[in-house]
Design brief:
By secondary structure, the protein is mostly beta strands. Helix content is 10%, strand content 38%. The chain has two domains: 144 residues, Jelly Rolls (Sandwich), CATH 2.60.120; 103 residues, Cystine Knot Cytokines, subunit B (Ribbon). Strands 1, 2, 3, 4, 5, 6, 7, 8 and 9 form a nine-stranded antiparallel β-sheet that branches. A three-stranded antiparallel β-sheet has the order 12-15-16, with no helix packed on it. A two-stranded antiparallel ribbon has the order 10-14. It is found in: Secreted.
Amino acid sequence: MKSRTPKSRGGMKATRLQKLSSSSPFGLAANWTLPQISPVIADTVMRNLPGSLGDELLTSKTSLFFVISNEGNQNLYVAQANLWLYFKVLPNVLEKGSRRKVTVKVYSQEPGLGSKWNLVEKRVELKRSGWHTFPLTDAVQLVFSKGDRRQNLDVRCEGCDGVGVQPVLVNTADESHRPFLVVQARAAGNKHRIRKRGLECDGSNSLCCRQQFYIDFRLIGWNDWIIAPSGYFGNFCEGNCPAYMAGVPGSASSFHTAVVNQYRMRGMSPGSMNSCCIPTKLSTMSMLYFDDEYNIVKRDVPNMIVEECGCA
């Protein structure tokens, strides 16, 4: 599948759903000086579980098993966690267009032990098929505090059969409507900046540096189709690139730039050959969004976050 940057819903082409993968989470940012929150997407595990663990988890059609990855950050504070479930409204059961009321209960369960406890109970009214969210912040935080990354859930829908409502859970070929868990977390107590090769803008100098910049999708009207994240630190580069910066490690954007900078330092370059401050390292960010057919798409979009800046 060819990778394309998501566009606004009005002009966005339908994109084939990519399967969510617990091995491709949102990376947690290195700098926590500002209150950055990084979304993590945990996927339901439906197959290829090791040994008896897979048998225990998949015997129930109402069971969900999530694995949450976080790339080495062990101490996480969960700001928000929501379970997304899709409910199908079946035809020819009630009068078309009538509202169908059901009660959905989400339990936490221990595989093999048989014990479970109620996490959330929600009354849901449905007129048509669609997505509904269930808050699980405290439950996910409890899992994290135990040093675990597994979330075992059991979903029960009271009244669904009688009114023709079917929650899409496991063992289904409907990949675009499979359940998923979105977790917004940040590193707890980590306020120290991890040193990078590039310069960080701090107002004390005018050299090429990385300026932190938060992009809020709500401010540009993209929150109607982007599910997560609600925003992110995209950052940008600014500052001067004097000739002597050619000798600063990591300041050149490429080997070609490093060679040209040697000419600049020696006064051998044409007067019009000016250096400018540009991104030298960009990172990928995962996104969840709706396509034109209201399918939920998970994409790893490249070159979204400016990590380091240099001169070119």
